[in-house]
C-alpha cells in the first residue's frame, strides 16, 4: 500500500474501496437483517468508526462502492 499509495494513489483508492464493497457483500450474506445494500453500508460505516484499525486499509479508505 505504501508503494502504490506513493506513486499511483488513484488506483489504490479504487482497489481499497472494492475491498470494502466485498465486506458489504459479506455483511449482506451473513446477516439477513442487512439485506438492503444501504443498511449494510451503514453497518460497515458504524464498524469503521467504532474500530478504525480493524482492517489495515481503513486508514486509507473508509467508503465502499
Defining traits:
mainly alpha; 0% strand; elongated
Write structural notes for this entry.
With 65 residues, the protein is mostly helical. It has one domain. It is built from three helices and no strands. Helix 2 packs across helix 3. The radius of gyration is 13 Å and the shape is elongated. The protein starts with a helix and ends in a 15-residue tail after the last helix.
Task: Describe how the helices and strands are arranged.
Blueprint: H1 2-7, H2 9-30, H3 37-50
Question: Could you provide a short overview of the structure?
Answer:
The protein has one domain. It is 65% helix and 0% strand.
Mean of residue pLDDT?
87
- Low-confidence stretches at least 5 residues in length (pLDDT < 50)? none
Number of domains: 1
* Overall form: elongated
E-strand count: 0
Radius of gyration over all CA atoms, rounded? 13 Å
H and E string: HHH
Q: Report the end-to-end length measured between terminal Cα atoms.
A: 19 Å
